[in-house]
Amino acid sequence: MKLKNSMMLGITALTLGTGVALLQGSTTASAHIWNDGTPSAVHGTWRTHSIYVKAIEMRNHATFKATAHTVSFSYNASSRVKLRDTYWRKTGAHSYTIHGAWSRDDGCDHRITAKKISKNHIRLYFDGRTITKSSGLPNSFYR
Q1: Are 86 and 69 in contact (CB under 8 A)?
Q2: What residue stretch is flagged as signal peptide (predicted)?
């Protein structure tokens, strides 16, 4: 009788332990992976369509250039943003966030988000804002 009670107690404990483990489920690590450099999907030189700027009385376009460890953006000679020592992560199906140090801002970390619309078309955002907002240029860049 004592053996039977001990076995029943053991089986009950084992069953309860297994049931609790199944109810908890498995936990997975959801750490975001940061990659060194820039994503190859946005490498190359991209530019907006030219528009006529009345203030300077000439046509102008914005340019975005991404190489292995540097990204730069400019829409005139004095507005260049160049991020060095970049690292990135994928934030969506065709969206990438690129971080890097901007030397004009004492090496502070800034981010550019690139959303790839198609093979030859991207949209860019600088620190969460449309990258061409203050220039009047469109935010669509083409190869």
Answers
A1: yes
A2: 1-31
- Helix/strand/coil percent split, the chain, to 5: 20, 45, 35
* Predicted TM-score (pTM) of this structure: 0.73
Helix, strand or coil, per DSSP, at residue 129: strand
pLDDT in tens, 64-107: 999 999 999 998 777 888 999 999 999 999 999 999 999 888 88
Q: Where are the domains of the chain?
A: 35-142
In sequence order, the 6+-apart residues with CB closer than 8 A to the CB of 11 are: none
45/74 Cα distance (integer angstroms): 12
